[in-house]
Specification:
By secondary structure, this protein is α+β, with helices and mostly antiparallel strands. The protein has ten helices and 26 strands. The structure holds adenosine-5'-triphosphate and magnesium ion.
Length: about 475
């Protein structure tokens, strides 16, 4: 169990900018820096199920790998349980990671795959003297380890002094930030050294787990995951879902403080994915450990996360609960990313007229909404002047009515539980998806009227694409 704090975390890949072309059109060597994760700030509480979601390449895996210690943090700070761990080795972070490719040993049985890490690992047991009394003394081994770490940090400090002296101006901020971090590390480590040199502590022996202890752990995980019958099988004899369970088991037996899962279900077919999705949520409820789960599937994110981080191009767009993301997207990207079918967007002109908001669509049609029925709009857009904004509304919040905006039906899709109607305001306009629960006799080419439920209307600034509405109702 653990809480995590990410403060101004950056990941910069050096020398990977866009390949430039020379006069002959041949690609030259790549140059420049690429910011894969930009100023990531978040506090994750003990026991939360956090989901990172966003399109391919938005920096989800990179962030996860930085937390795991598999990727160096270029800037910022990562704390686990209040301790700065930027420079702590992956193996010392007490974190288990499960990947999309299960990374199982093909020649080992399921049992041995799960037990592998346990066999390699030594666990601490309190040291006792010949009378069976626990030994409390100055821990020389610990002191030697801290001194070694400190030597490494001093070396890093010297190297950074040189980096700062000869780096280009644009990199100066980056190196001075690293310097500050290095100094904090040194201060923390020196404090630790002082403590251990002056304070007798309980000494530990590090021993391998016994066969029985390993057996108990493997059986515990196998029982929770329902894979007892598979323990003698080799990965090649198992289905994707079974292999994924073995990979989960291997992470579980380590008893990590944090579980990191990077698209663990993307190799499974749709049905199995849904089943495993529920199992992972159940597993989280049982273990009550902090989970961070990466996916680019918004349905997976919505159904699994207690909080979701939506990312785009290395930047956090919104951190919120699933329902808040759906109901109150803070920008147009989140609005479009969360929810199926995608939210419909319209470029409109809005103008306040008394207690109404007049909305004018590109084809000239206008509709009035009572301001009291809309979520509160930022005052500057309600000054009685015309403002060009983007209006968003989900398909299920539009209905086919007798009055309202005129449109033409272009396609009708009967999905069984709902019917999707694609309509257009103008011949050249975009298709708008209207999702209705009932079936109907409409056919493509029919002229229809559409009405938006005012309660569920979203408005975004055209330039910044940020929402201009608050979560409450009641415009003044
Ligand atoms: N080792 C690397 N060197 C250079 N660039 C990298 C490296 N690893 C990742 N990147 C770049 O960093 C960006 C973020 O990558 P990342 O793997 O975190 O994306 P992701 O959100 O996990 O995407 P996906 O959904 O495809 O897994 C991408 O543009 C990627 O090309
Ligand atoms: Mg990834």
């Amino acid at each position: 169990m653990a809480n995590l704090l990410l403060r101004h975390v950056y990941k910069i890949y050096h020398g990977v900018g866009k390949a430039k072309k020379n006069a002959k059109g041949e690609a030259k060597k790549r140059s420049g820096d690429f910011v894969a994760v930009k100023d990531f700030n978040m506090e994750i509480n003990d026991g939360e199920f956090i989901v990172f979601v966003g399109p391919s390449g938005c920096g989800k895996s990179t962030t996860l790998r930085m937390i795991a210690g598999l990727e160096e943090i270029s800037g910022g700070e990562l704390y686990i349980d209040g301790r700065l761990v930027n420079d702590v080795d992956a193996k010392d972070r007490d974190i288990a990671m499960v990947f999309q490719s299960y990374a199982l040993y093909p020649h080992l049985s399921a049992y041995d795959n799960i037990a592998f890490g346990l066999k390699m690992r030594k666990i601490p047991v309190p040291k006792v003297d010949k009378d069976g009394k626990e030994v409390i003394a100055i821990d020389e081994k610990k002191i030697a380890k801290i001194e070694k770490d400190l030597k490494k940090l001093y070396k890093q400090r010297d190297a950074l002094v040189k980096d700062v002296a000869r780096c280009e101006e644009k990199d100066l901020a980056y190196y001075t930030e690293k310097q500050a971090l290095n100094e904090r590390h040194i201060a923390d480590t020196e404090k630790d050294l002082e403590y251990y040199k002056s304070t007798p502590v309980q000494l530990y022996d590090y021993v391998h787990m016994t066969k029985k202890e390993i057996d108990e752990k493997v059986n515990w995980a196998a029982e929770i995951l329902g894979i007892e019958e598979l323990l003698d099988s080799k990965p090649s004899e198992m289905s994707g879902g079974q292999r994924q369970r073995i990979a989960l088991g291997r992470a579980m037996v380590r008893g990590p403080k944090v579980f990191l899962l990077d698209e663990p279900l993307s190799n499974l077919d749709a049905k199995l994915r849904t089943a495993m999705r529920a199992e992972i949520v159940k597993l989280h409820n049982q273990l009550k450990t902090t989970f961070i789960y990466v996916t680019h599937d918004q349905i997976e994110a919505m159904t699994m996360g207690t909080r979701i981080v939506v990312m785009k191009l290395g930047v956090i767009q919104q951190i919120d609960t699933p329902t808040n993301l759906f109901d109150y997207p803070e920008n147009k990207f989140v609005a479009g990313f969360i929810g199926t079918p995608q939210m419909n967007f319209f470029d409109v002109d809005i103008k306040r007229v008394g207690d109404k908001l007049n909305v004018k669509f590109v084809d000239g049609q206008t509709v009035d909404f009572a301001l009291s029925e809309l979520r509160t709009i930022e005052a500057k857009y309600l000054d009685g002047k015309v403002h060009s904004v983007c209006l968003g509304v989900r398909g299920e919040n539009i209905k086919i009515g007798n009055s309202g905006i005129q449109a033409e039906l272009t396609i009708k899709e009967v999905l069984g539980n709902t019917t999707q109607l694609f309509v257009r305001l103008t011949e050249k306009g975009n298709d708008i998806i209207v999702s209705v629960p009932e079936r109907n006799d409409l056919i493509p080419g029919d002229k229809v009227h559409i009405e938006f439920a005012p309660k569920f209307i979203h408005l975004f600034d055209k330039e910044t694409e940020l929402s201009i509405m608050s979560r409450e109702y009641g415009n003044k």
